[in-house]
């Protein structure tokens, strides 16, 4: 159940919600409904957005912290989440939302999904509603394939279009260097479409079985995790954004244990041995001239959760 928060007039509920890296992303063929069946290992990282919610006369959503244009109000995924929750609970979506964005926009790290999950959890708390987690996860899946995972966080196996989750036993603490590539974001549907095009045009290698990755996570075998990282969308992201190859190469040359395009890209995620190693790889990569910004992060991180700051 979500916690019951008795929010008085003017109260603010703050929620932290994580970005993700897909440690493994196997993509099936396009389905009749346009989606692709996935076998993916989601991994939440502590690069998180912070979403503040307050009672108001009407729904409004503002974002800050990024230079990219992000939709406002009901067109923002957080606004869509509040509209859906209000409908299901028979309430007015009268909430003012303020999002501090840290997760790169359209970067393949599910930033919009994180904000949607935060809005669900935060609004339920603001309205003092005990919504069972399973109910919230069902509504999350209506908002987007990545939203249920943003609710759960941690490390999880995703199937279906990514919305069906099962727990993964993981003993690994992972240190990351994340390099959101310059040149703007990539559209998720465009990357899936590019993969379909590449597959129709020729033989594109597919990610193998997920079991070796699950085994490496279970034992906390960092070298095994690095070796088993795979992403079927990577070829499509490279095709749309060829310079990503150089960034990935520069990260590996800087000493990362392994590297991968995160989800639909264009963020490059580089696995490192520990936080100190990540800091050294980040410094080297920043000096390589192949990226605009570099960040470090750690995982697994918890899913969307109320921070309790109110008043
Ligand atoms: C690339 C990933 O981030 C990997 O976790 C996700 O698959 C994307 O999830 P998302 O952004 O939540 O995607 P959705 O909002 O559900 O879908 C957006 C579009 O992405 C494509 N899409 C998404 C998920 C999926 N399993 N197959 C797809 O083909 C479809 O064109 C869909 O219309
Ligand atoms: N709260 C939000 N934060 C960021 N983008 C949003 C938000 N709401 C709507 N959007 C729109 O959704 C698009 C994709 O944003 P998002 O940052 O979620 O991409 P992504 O991380 O690549 O997604 P995914 O990894 O789930 O495919 C943006 O370009 C923007 O137009």
UniProtKB/TrEMBL annotation:
One of its GO terms (molecular function) is ATP binding. Residues 76-154 form the GHMP kinase N-terminal domain. It is an enzyme of class 2 (transferase). Signal peptide: none annotated. Coiled coil: none annotated. Pathway: Isoprenoid biosynthesis; isopentenyl diphosphate biosynthesis via DXP pathway; isopentenyl diphosphate from 1-deoxy-D-xylulose 5-phosphate: step 3/6. It catalyses: 4-CDP-2-C-methyl-D-erythritol + ATP = 4-CDP-2-C-methyl-D-erythritol 2-phosphate + ADP + H(+). Residues 213-285 form the GHMP kinase C-terminal domain. ATP binds at residues 104-114. Keywords: ATP-binding, Isoprene biosynthesis, Kinase, Nucleotide-binding, Transferase. Its EC number is 2.7.1.148. GO terms for biological process: isopentenyl diphosphate biosynthetic process, methylerythritol 4-phosphate pathway; terpenoid biosynthetic process. The keyword Repressor does not apply. Belongs to the GHMP kinase family. IspE subfamily. Catalyzes the phosphorylation of the position 2 hydroxy group of 4-diphosphocytidyl-2C-methyl-D-erythritol. NCBIfam families: ispE (TIGR00154), PRK03188.1 (NF002870). This is 4-diphosphocytidyl-2-C-methyl-D-erythritol kinase. The lineage of its organism: Bacteria, Bacillati, Actinomycetota, Actinomycetes, Nakamurellales.
């Amino acid at each position: 159940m979500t916690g019951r928060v008795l929010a008085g007039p003017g109260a603010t509920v703050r929620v932290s919600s994580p970005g993700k890296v897909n440690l493994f992303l196997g993509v099936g063929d396009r389905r009749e409904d346009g989606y692709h069946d996935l076998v993916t290992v989601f991994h939440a990282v502590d690069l998180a957005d912070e979403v503040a919610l307050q009672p108001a006369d009407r729904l409004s959503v503002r974002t800050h912290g990024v230079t990219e244009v992000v939709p406002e109000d009901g067109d923002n995924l957080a606004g869509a989440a509040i509209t859906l929750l209000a409908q299901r609970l028979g309430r007015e979506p009268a909430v003012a939302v303020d999002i501090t964005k840290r997760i790169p926009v359209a970067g393949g790290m599910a930033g919009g999904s994180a904000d949607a999950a935060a809005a669900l959890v935060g609004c339920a708390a603001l309205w003092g509603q005990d919504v069972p987690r399973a109910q919230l996860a069902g509504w999350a899946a209506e908002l987007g394939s990545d939203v249920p995972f943003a609710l759960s966080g941690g490390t999880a196996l995703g199937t279906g279009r990514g919305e069906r989750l099962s727990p993964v036993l993981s003993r690994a603490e992972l240190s990351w260097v994340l390099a959101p590539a310059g040149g703007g974001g990539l559209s998720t549907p465009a990357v899936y479409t590019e993969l379909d095009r590449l597959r129709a045009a020729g033989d594109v290698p597919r990610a193998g079985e997920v079991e070796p990755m699950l085994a490496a996570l279970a034992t906390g075998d960092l070298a095994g995790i690095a070796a088993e990282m795979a992403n079927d969308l990577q070829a499509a992201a490279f095709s749309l954004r060829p310079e990503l190859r150089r960034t990935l190469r520069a990260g590996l040359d800087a000493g990362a244990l392994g590297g991968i395009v995160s989800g639909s890209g264009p963020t490059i995620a580089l696995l490192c041995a520990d936080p100190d190693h990540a800091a050294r790889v980040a410094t080297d990569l920043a000096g390589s001239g192949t990226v605009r910004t570099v960040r470090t992060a750690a995982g697994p991180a918890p899913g969307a959760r109320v921070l309790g700051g109110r008043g």
